[in-house]
Structures are given as structure tokens and as C-alpha cells.
Automatic annotation (TrEMBL):
<dbReference type="InterPro" id="IPR000233">
    <property type="entry name" value="Cadherin_Y-type_LIR"/>
</dbReference>
<dbReference type="GO" id="GO:0016477">
    <property type="term" value="P:cell migration"/>
</dbReference>
<keyword id="KW-0812">Transmembrane</keyword>
<dbReference type="GO" id="GO:0044331">
    <property type="term" value="P:cell-cell adhesion mediated by cadherin"/>
</dbReference>
<dbReference type="InterPro" id="IPR020894">
    <property type="entry name" value="Cadherin_CS"/>
</dbReference>
<dbReference type="GO" id="GO:0034332">
    <property type="term" value="P:adherens junction organization"/>
</dbReference>
<keyword id="KW-0479">Metal-binding</keyword>
<dbReference type="GO" id="GO:0008013">
    <property type="term" value="F:beta-catenin binding"/>
</dbReference>
<keyword id="KW-0597">Phosphoprotein</keyword>
<dbReference type="InterPro" id="IPR027397">
    <property type="entry name" value="Catenin-bd_sf"/>
</dbReference>
<dbReference type="GO" id="GO:0016339">
    <property type="term" value="P:calcium-dependent cell-cell adhesion via plasma membrane cell adhesion molecules"/>
</dbReference>
<dbReference type="InterPro" id="IPR002126">
    <property type="entry name" value="Cadherin-like_dom"/>
</dbReference>
<dbReference type="GO" id="GO:0007043">
    <property type="term" value="P:cell-cell junction assembly"/>
</dbReference>
<keyword id="KW-1003">Cell membrane</keyword>
<feature type="domain" description="Cadherin">
    <location>
        <begin position="309"/>
        <end position="413"/>
    </location>
</feature>
<keyword id="KW-0472">Membrane</keyword>
<keyword id="KW-0325">Glycoprotein</keyword>
Length: 718
């Protein structure tokens, strides 16, 4: 309620209200000043309102007092229940945990005013999940309530939590949430075999490394706590087998380490131990985390292929052994209970295998062709043995036959077959050391002997000295040799080996007589060199060759210069056909001298060019010279000069007007005759130069000069 001291209760004062919620949430009686709420208030929506009130005169509308401000505060009531904003919850705790192990903390929020009464005081309790878990009523912490909860018994738990305000008193509002709790696994269970004895049946034909059976121990734990390691306990049969763990199924896979043979042993017994890889020390008191089982393996008899007595056969035979000679045998047996006969044959792969044959029943190997060690020293092929009762069951073995050498080739002298001896050689001088080679496979300690043939022993030129180490020296027996008498000697040398039967050969060596210096260095072995005088040294020969080369270079340069000079003169003389200017230092013979140039060049029709319009000057109208009577002599030259003169007068492409066009020949019959005063038949006064004006602009200056002189002559009568 609002009231002004100026309000006398006669209705002269009017009250107004403004601010938060004025007119929408709150209203005022203009006459009495009573303030009323026109709708429900929610503290959680807006806890207080700030309003302004004023008293005004009803008639003048003027305020009677200053505007005053006041606050309306909303008082809280318990109208909101607690809420779990993060629920539902998911938590986990290891199995076998002790009582009071921490699991999770939950929290509920109440929107009521915590400073007014108990409307926001929350208390927690468990509605579902006892007796396994407990909760702190004030903090909301959930803990285990029972010891040794086993995951293998029960893994999932759902706990219902309640939060109630008003301190949990009667009449308080409550909210609930669920907590899903999972027991995580620990290694609290050892692996156990479901049975104590495992029986396996394995064919004797099983391959080494193949899996022959599986056994499994059961571990109720999960994940890495259920990983099992299998081991074979040392004992009977354990060395023939191995066991590994299949990571996907945790089974023990038994594999074969060695081949089985039913005829040798029909059954094997051994023990297998299963244990956990990851142990938990908290549970050692429970007992050993491993288990043992017995495995019995029965070997099944299978129809197997024959077995050779050796993994490989090696035989030897001499080359050139007669065809059909037996050189060895292979043996294979059927080791099955019902023994079967065996048949042998060669595994044909190429033509080399055709050199031998095998007896299908006995397995004896014989030669089928003559063998040559020098062609093939070793043969390698395969023998296949099959059972008569089941030909599809076969086995194979490699056979190596080494061909032994027979002494069939005589030894021969090794290169070189040719040597030389100096003319100034002394008796007993070794000129060459020779050795021998044998195509046969020489056995250890093979010896070769060297000697002269019988016919060469009677000639005292050379001899052979056997060093008894498979080499021999060729020695001289004369004091000096002459090329003029004999240039080449042929020395037959006999070589024998020590094998059986003894083989020998006669080898002829060529000995060439050469000219040598005093140190024994060979200078020349050619027969032509005998007739050449001894004289020039190498340096002198090089000097002579250099002189010859220099002379040839000088001659070539001289010829090239002459050709170049002649070419330059020809180009100068033919550079311009029309304006042929001859340069010389002596005085010429005048206008009548026509021997200084080739008149034929003026008659060359190739020098005539087509008329071309010049673009740099504007041609003027030209006047043609007046015609004069022709002169009898030199008509061809006069016509040529006249034609060229006319062409130059009308040619706009001709040189500029102040240039001089020189013609090499004037001729006796010139229309203008000679301009020189020398040998003139008439005097200057008798000359009439009016025709010069008719010759065109080129002779204008000359016409003006002679015209002025004529007009100035005082003797002339006008």
C-alpha cells in the first residue's frame, strides 16, 4: 500500500506505478494506493521486482511528491524437486573389491532458495541396489557394500538413487536416477582343462610343421586375464611335437616337428601344461594358476611311397666305357606293413638323361652311349621309384655320375710356338722357356718330359734342357748366327706325359734370327733390313720428315695466295660494267685512245636495266636533243651513245643533276663534235652553241656559259 501525507482522502490525489512488472504482474489502485499481484509469481523465474511510485494531483496532473522507488521481493516456497542433471550414470568397479571401495559420486540440484528454510537441503538414499552398494546421504558417494563380488557370478548391477529435499522430512519433494555399475575383470581364476586326457589320431604321412590337433583349457576370466600359454612337459614323445597358442580362440595347437612312421612307433603320450600369462599377485593364495592334461597320439598307417636307402647317390665311370656297362645301383623299399615291389625309371628331362639306362626291377644303372669327359665331366639326373601296388605313390632321388679321365690326348707345347735368337748369341744361352698343356684331366703329380726329336739331335744349332718341373729351356749351341745364311730354324720338341698309357707329341718351334744390340735387345728381324746401310738414327729421320712437311706447307700457301690475288683482280675489273674506270699513273693518249678498255663491255646487252621510277625526286619534262645528220664512220658506237644519252635524259632514276656521267668513248662522229680547242678547224667566234640549249638540263650550264660569251662579243652585229 502506498500513501501520501498530502492525501486528505477527498479524491484529489492519484497514484501511479512504473517499473518491472508494472501493469503485467502488479497493478495499483489509483485512489487508495493499494498494490495487487495480478498473476502467480515464481521465485526461480524472478526473485525480486524494482518499482517506482508517484502521487499526482488529479486536476493539475502535477506530481505532489518526488517519485519514490521500492523493491518487491518474492518469498520462496518448496515448489521444486531435486534433479540429477548428469543422470543416468555409468560406473565400474573391479570384481573382488573390498567393502567400501569407491564407485561413483552423484549430485542432485534443487532450484529452491538454499538460504530460506530447508527447501533446497537434499538427502540421498538407495531405493534399489542393496545390499551390494551403499551411498553417503550428504555427499552422494556410492561405495561397495559386500566383499568379493565375483564378475563371473554377476557382472552388471543397476542401482536406483533418490534425492529428497526438506532434509528428507515428510512432505519433501524427491527426484531419482539410475546408476549402471559393471564389475571389471581381474585374474582371479586359473585355466582348467575340461578333461584330463585328450586322444588324437594322426596319419603317418603328415608333413612336418603341420597342425595335427587342438586342445583347450577354459579360463572364465576375460581379456588379457584369460590369455593362456601352453607348454609340452618333457617326457615320452615330447621331442616330436610342438604346441602354440591360437590368439583368437586361446586353443593349444599341436604341430609336428619330426616325421612320423607307423612301422617305427604307433603311439605317443605326453603332457601339456596350460598357464596364465598375466598373473595377479593378490590371488596367489588361491593356488597355482595352471593346469595339466595328458595327450595321447595314435599314428595311423598310410600307404606311403618307397623310401630310398640314401638321400643322394654318387657314382664314377671311366670315359669311353663300353655301352651297357653297369656303373652302380639304387635301392628303394616299401616300408608299409604289406610290402610291395618297387619299379625304377629315369626322370627324363633332357637329352642328357639318355646316356644311361636303369633296370626297372633291380635298379642297376648302365651306360647307354660312349662318354667323353672332355665334352661332359658330370651328369646329374633323377631316379623315380614307384610301388607296384600303387604306381601313383612315387619318390625321387638325385644321382650324380662323375666321368673319370682316360689318358687319350698327348700333351702339347703351350704358346708361344715362335721365338727369336740374336745373331751375336753365345753357346748355352737360354732363348725361350716352354711349358706343356694336356686336354686330359691331369691327375695330381702329373709330369711332362721334354727332349729333342731324333733327327734334330744330330744338328748342333739348338738343344732342349728339361728342368723336370714341367718346363724346359731352349738353349743355343753355336757361337753366333747369321741371317744371311739362314733366317729361320725349325726345332722339333718331343713332349711325353706320365699317365697310362703314355702319350707323346712332337711340336715344332720356329726360331727367327734377329739383329740385336750389345745388350741383347732386338733391333730388327725383317729380312729386308739386311741390305739397309747402318746409319741414320731416329732423331735424324724425324728431322728429315719435319723438313719435308715444312716445304709442303710453304708450297700450299704460295699456291693459295696466287689464287686469291687472281680472284681479287678479276672481281675489281668486273665490279661495274658501265662505269669501267681504269687506274694508271702514266698520261693517256687522249680521247682517241680506245685501247685502255674493252669496247665489248659497252655492247653487252645484259647491262641494260629496266626503267624504275625514283621516289626521292620528281622528274621534270625533258627535252630531247635535236637530230643531226649521221656520220658515216663509227655508226654502231654513235647509235649506242645516243641510245644511252636518251635513256639517261628521260630516266627519273638517273643520278642527281649535279653528278657527272662519264662515257668511255666519244667517237669521231659526235653530234657536238669535239669541245676542245686543240686541232679545231674553226675559231671560237665561228662556233654556234645554240644547240646546247636543246640537249636538255644536263647541258644547261654549258649552254649558259657559251651563250653569255657570244652575247658579249663586240664584233657581233645584232
Amino acid at each position: 500500500k502506498l500513501h501520501s501525507d498530502l492525501d486528505k482522502g477527498v479524491g484529489t490525489v492519484k497514484y501511479t506505478l512504473s517499473g518491472d512488472g508494472a501493469g503485467t504482474v502488479f497493478t495499483i489502485d489509483e485512489t487508495t494506493g493499494d498494490i495487487h499481484a495480478i498473476r502467480s509469481l515464481d521465485r526461480e523465474e524472478k526473485p525480486f521486482y524494482t518499482l517506482r511510485a508517484q502521487a499526482v494531483d488529479v486536476d493539475t496532473k502535477k506530481p505532489l511528491e518526488p517519485e519514490s522507488e521500492f523493491i518487491i521481493k518474492v518469498q520462496d516456497i518448496n515448489d521444486n524437486e531435486p534433479k540429477f542433471l548428469d543422470g543416468p550414470y555409468v560406473a565400474s568397479v573391479p570384481e573382488m573389491s573390498p567393502v567400501g571401495a569407491y564407485v561413483l559420486q552423484v549430485k542432485a540440484t534443487d532450484a529452491d532458495d538454499p538460504t530460506y528454510g530447508n527447501s533446497a537441503r537434499v538427502v540421498y538414499s538407495i531405493l534399489q541396489g542393496q545390499p551390494y552398494f551403499s551411498i553417503d546421504p550428504k555427499t552422494g558417494v556410492i561405495r561397495t557394500a559386500l566383499p568379493n563380488m565375483d564378475r563371473e557370478v554377476k557382472e552388471q548391477y543397476q542401482v536406483l538413487i533418490q534425492a529428497k529435499d526438506m532434509g528428507g522430512q515428510l512432505g519433501g519433494l524427491a527426484g531419482t536416477t539410475t546408476v549402471n555399475i559393471t564389475l571389471t575383470d581381474v585374474n582371479d581364476n586359473p585355466p582348467r582343462f575340461p578333461k584330463s586326457i585328450f586322444h588324437l589320431k594322426v596319419p603317418e604321412s603328415s608333413h612336418v610343421g603341420s597342425a595335427i590337433g587342438r586342445i583347450r583349457a577354459v579360463d572364465p576370466d576375460f581379456g588379457k586375464n584369460a590369455e593362456i600359454e601352453y607348454n609340452i612337459v618333457p617326457g615320452d614323445g615330447g621331442n616330436l611335437f610342438d604346441i602354440t597358442t591360437d590368439e583368437n580362440t586361446q586353443e593349444g595347437v599341436i604341430k609336428l616337428k619330426k616325421p612320423l612312421d607307423f612301422e617305427t612307433k604307433k603311439a605317443y603320450t605326453f603332457k601339456v601344461e596350460a598357464s596364465n600369462l598375466h598373473l595377479d599377485h593378490r590371488f596367489h593364495s588361491v593356488g597355482p594358476f595352471k593346469d595339466t592334461a595328458t595327450v595321447k597320439i595314435n599314428v595311423l598307417d598310410m600307404d606311403e611311397p618307397p623310401v630310398f636307402s640314401k638321400p643322394m647317390y654318387t657314382m664314377e665311370v671311366y670315359e669311353d666305357t663300353p655301352v651297357g656297362t653297369i656303373i652302380g645301383a639304387v635301392t628303394a623299399q616299401d616300408l608299409d606293413a604289406g610290402s610291395s615291389s618297387v619299379r625304377y625309371f629315369i626322370d627324363w628331362k633332357n637329352d642328357v638323361d639318355s646316356y644311361f639306362t636303369i633296370d626297372a626291377t633291380e635298379g642297376t644303372i648302365a651306360t647307354n652311349e660312349l662318354l667323353d669327359r672332355e665334352s661332359t665331366a658330370q651328369y646329374n639326373f633323377s631316379i623315380i621309384a614307384s610301388k607296384v601296388s600303387n604306381p601313383l605313390l612315387t619318390s625321387k632321388v638325385n644321382v650324380i655320375i662323375n666321368v673319370l679321365d682316360v689318358n687319350e690326348f698327348p700333351p702339347e707345347i703351350s704358346v708361344p710356338y715362335e721365338t727369336s735368337v740374336c745373331e751375336n748369341a753365345k753357346p748355352g744361352q737360354v732363348i725361350q722357356t716352354v711349358s706343356a698343356a694336356d686336354k686330359d684331366l691331369s691327375p695330381a703329380g702329373q709330369r711332362f718330359s721334354f727332349r729333342l726329336s731324333a733327327e734334330a739331335s744330330n744338328k748342333p744349332n739348338f738343344t732342349v734342357h728339361d728342368y723336370r718341373n714341367n718346363t724346359a729351356g731352349i738353349e743355343t749351341r753355336r757361337n753366333g748366327y747369321s741371317r744371311r745364311q739362314q733366317e729361320i730354324y725349325f726345332l722339333p720338341v718331343v713332349i711325353e706325359d706320365s699317365s697310362y698309357p703314355v702319350q707323346s707329341s712332337t711340336n715344332t718351334m720356329t726360331i727367327r734370327v734377329c739383329r740385336c744390340d750389345s745388350d741383347g735387345t732386338i733391333l730388327s728381324c725383317n729380312v729386308e733390313a739386311i741390305f739397309l746401310p747402318v746409319g741414320l738414327s731416329t732423331g735424324a729421320l724425324i728431322a728429315i720428315l719435319l723438313c719435308i712437311v715444312i716445304l709442303l706447307v710453304i708450297v700450299v700457301l704460295y699456291v693459295a695466295l696466287r689464287r686469291q690475288k687472281k680472284k681479287d683482280t678479276l672481281m675489281t675489273s668486273k665490279e661495274d660494267i658501265r662505269d669501267n674506270v681504269i687506274h694508271y699513273d702514266d698520261e693517256g693518249g687522249g680521247e682517241e685512245d680506245t685501247q685502255a678498255f674493252d669496247i665489248g663491255a659497252l655492247r653487252n646487252p645484259k647491262v641494260i636495266e629496266d626503267n624504275k621510277i625514283r621516289r626521292d625526286i620528281k622528274p621534270d619534262t625533258l627535252c630531247f636533243p635535236r637530230q643531226r645528220p649521221p656520220v658515216e664512220d663509227n655508226t654502231d658506237i654513235r647509235d649506242f651513245i645516243s641510245q644511252r644519252l636518251q635513256e639517261n635524259d628521260v630516266d627519273p632514276t638517273a643520278p642527281p643533276y649535279d653528278s657527272l656521267a662519264t662515257y668511255a668513248y666519244e667517237g669521231n662522229g659526235s653530234v657536238a663534235e669535239s669541245l676542245s680547242s686543240i686541232d679545231s678547224l674553226t675559231t671560237e667566234a665561228d662556233q654556234d652553241y645554240d644547240y646546247l640549249s636543246d640537249w636538255g638540263p644536263r647541258f644547261k650550264i654549258l649552254a649558259d656559259m657559251f651563250g653569255e660569251e657570244e652575247s658579249y662579243n663586240p664584233d657581233k652585229v645584232t
